[in-house]
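Hi everyone,

Forwarding the result from last night's run.
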Amino acid sequence: MNKILACLILSAMTSTAFAQSGTNSPYSQYGLGDLTDQSTGFNKGMNGVGIAMRRGYEVNPLNPASYSAADSLSMVFDAGLSGQITNFNENGVKLNGKSGGFDYVVGMFRAFRNVGITFGVLPYSNVGYKYSTSVVLPDAATAVASTYQGTGGLHQLFLGAGVRPFKPLSLGFNIAYLWGDYDREVTTSSSSAINSLSKQYSASVSNYKLDLGLQWEQRIGKSDAIILGATFSPGHKLKADPTCRIISTNSTISKSDSTTFTISNGLELPTSYGVGLSYNHLQKFRVGADFQMQKWGSISYPDYNEGSYALKDGLLKDRYQMNVGAEWMPNPLSRKLVNHVRYRIGAGYTTPYYYINGQEGPKELSVSLGFGIPIANVYNNRSVLNVSAQWAHRSADNLITENTFRINIGLTFNERWFAKWKVE
């Protein structure tokens, strides 16, 4: 119990300092920012597939029903970080940006027979960008420069449980404390005027998030199984009050005037659905596919227009995500560690959840390749170093094209904390 409490405390401490991995994408200025996946090390090698995945030595927050498979003798602790390089391309002008940091910290143990408990920290969204534009007006004598910048993001500190009431059904839930904030600013100045205009958008979130999961594992003989998974997350208001502050500054007399607008309870999470299917052959091979939908299109979002800051429909759209992935181990029965390496591959397609000036935002295509390398120790070789690489391409007509190369590194500790030792 002392070890479990120590892990809970460590997760809370880590959440404060390292939970957000960061981004430098200008697309994070829309909505709640760049949405992150809820995957851990083994999922990332398969491009985030996991709704229908379940094993007793893997923490899988994508479907809390999977926690019911937790091993009776083990405490699983998983932490991961990532680093990425993004190439931005707009009308032939190219620029590279770097970002990275800690992604997640999670843990899992079995509380009772067919009941698993999980806890940890996961990112929900990231906001991070800074860029500028300049436009010359038709009179050819006036240039208007605008600077855009933003920081922030949302995080989840969660506790989950999974139970198998009877074979082959498992049910589970995650209840999370969702918190964070964002600050965005747009500053515009003209070469022919002494005034500059700044619009500052900010919000602070402190609320909850609930995820429900189901899995049905159908055995096919002694060696094979098909698993059907489903998830549901109810949408709700976040009781956050987004603000917009308009500041007009006169550079000659160093004087500024400001007006602040506030929308009460102006942010909201969407209702989300997910389904997944996987096929497993012993511990040697598994393949899966996921489909997820988030109902952002039914949510109004804050917008400033002609001196008014209010909720507006039509700024967001429903988001769809499809992923496929597979994992193969050469020989689970071999005594050689090299035959226990897990080789992973995956691909995915994601639609945007926002419009940009009335146009649909960028779609994303991604592929991944990963390895799970066993770590030998005194007691077992079930701890795993998960390493994966992902390439993601985001593009839309007449908008910035992004090509991101990302490296994910996760370490899964799977130790026998609950075994009883006998002395003869």
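The chain has two helices and 23 strands.

Cheers,
N.
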